[in-house]
Amino acid sequence: MKKNLSYHNINEIPYLTWNWIKINRASLQAKVEEEIADCARVKNVPKGTKIFYDGDSKLNEIESCIPKTMEHKSSEDTTKIINSFAAKKMGILAQGECEAPLIINFDLKDGKTYCAKQSIVAEENANITIIFDYTSNKDADGFFALQTKIYAKQNSKIHLIKVQLLGENAIHLDDTQSLAEENASIKITQIELGSKKAFVNVTSNLEGFAANFKSETAYIAKNEQEFDFNYCTVHTGKKTDTKMDVKGSLADNASKTYRGTIDFRTGCISSTGDEQEETLLLSPNATNRSIPMILCGEEEISGTHGSTLGRLGSEELFYFNSRGISESEAKSIMTRAKVMAFAQNIPDENLVQKISEYIGEE
Q: In angstroms, rounded to a whole number, what is the distance separating the alpha carbons of residues 193 and 163?
């Protein structure tokens, strides 16, 4: 049975700007299968990691311990969408030093729907890396929606890696919320290459003293792909730090929207934040919208942002041509480099090779 989805406040920016810019929010309209497929496969569970599923009382304990303060308005429509399905649930508990990454593969079949919620909690002094690998056949259809909540307790470290290689007709909805306590560290690495439409929302709350958040996002949008990104970090703790870095390329008739907000709230004395975006335009028909924003409710802070948009310049092309590399090859090299700059640091050689081969095929 098919289900109609019609939502108009996806990835809403925390403070609205002029409506005519058409950047305040995104809309999602689709007709998808109502039945949820079972496509998640957990492998390589490291020592010190425990996983809980629907029906386990421990899962309820993990969900209930996650602070409500991490929820942002930008997640409201995504939450409604996922709650409208019989979403799969998973709880991940990290205790101590998890030396190897936890890997979860999601293999979405053509035309299927998958909706899920993950709750990730790192106990004090824990250290864990988690990899989500989203994949499907190259021309597959389908609807893939995930909401991930991350709670990093005192002195803990969490690195979440999400790699999206879904089919060219799929719709991808990905929402990540996080909160860091004192001296805790959260890092999000996001590689977006597949799907017809992708909506990515990443929000972080730095509540503890010296808590820090870092995000690295890479993408390639081509053909008629539509990517919509929203990133927001809220600083409330003293000496907290944010670094957000987005690199990508736009080709053909693709479009991309990026909203990046660093919100310094009253009391976050001596906090720092930096967001940088680099977009390579490979086609005059591609569309890019960007709005980097820094909000200051505290005087003693340091915030910087930058957004670079452009094509390969004459100097770069001359450099490549002087070494026998054509313009099309040069564009391919630069496009690949933006993704692999982040992908090569993923602690899974097979997945890095998979990303490399996917780019090579395109």
A: 8
Q: Which residues pair with 72 in a beta bridge?
A: none
Q: Are 103 and 44 in contact (CB under 8 A)?
A: yes
Whether pTM > 0.90 for this model: the answer is yes
List C-alpha distances in Å: 120 to 65, 148, 350: 10, 7, 24
What is the pLDDT tens value at each position of the chain, 362 positions in all? 899 999 999 999 998 888 888 899 999 999 999 999 989 999 889 999 999 998 898 999 999 999 998 999 999 999 999 999 999 999 999 999 998 999 999 999 999 999 999 999 999 999 999 999 999 998 999 999 999 999 999 999 999 999 999 999 999 999 999 999 999 999 999 999 999 999 999 999 999 999 999 999 999 999 999 999 999 999 999 999 999 999 999 999 999 999 999 999 999 999 999 999 999 999 999 999 999 999 999 999 999 988 887 776 656 655 556 667 676 776 777 788 889 999 999 999 999 999 999 998 65
